[in-house]
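Database export, one record per block. Field names are fixed; values are copied verbatim from the stored entry.
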Amino acid sequence: MMSPRFLFARPAGPAPMFPLLWRSLWPDLRPYAAGLGAALAASAASPALEAAGVWVFKRVIDEVLVPHALARLPPLAALLTVLVVADAAAGAVERLLAAWATERFLVALRTRVSSGTCSPCRSPRSSAVPPAISWPASTPTRP
């Protein structure tokens, strides 16, 4: 019978690659950290705005439709409209900032990798990583 400690033991393997990748990618990511942070904040605000919209709609049902008190509808409708527009704006800001930052980050990373000054997949204690695409030794020429 196996011991319970054996079932939960972690295999001894190489160290995680995340810290190494983070250190090698941070120089290219640093200029866009503020844009990515703002995109993260906008994406976190969107669910909060949607939840507030559901709450306002609940109030419309409870305070306007059930008791047939239509006088309370205009302020709640205006509040719901503001929440829907703010949610749409937060979603647009999140998509625009995320696309802007990631596109520019990839351009900077590709430039650095193609110039030979970056090797994000190479560990200082390991040998060189083989390229993903190996070109043939001799390329055929066109006649």
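Remark 1: The helical segments are 4-7, 18-29, 33-65, 73-115.
Remark 2: The first helix runs from residue 4 to 7.
End of record.
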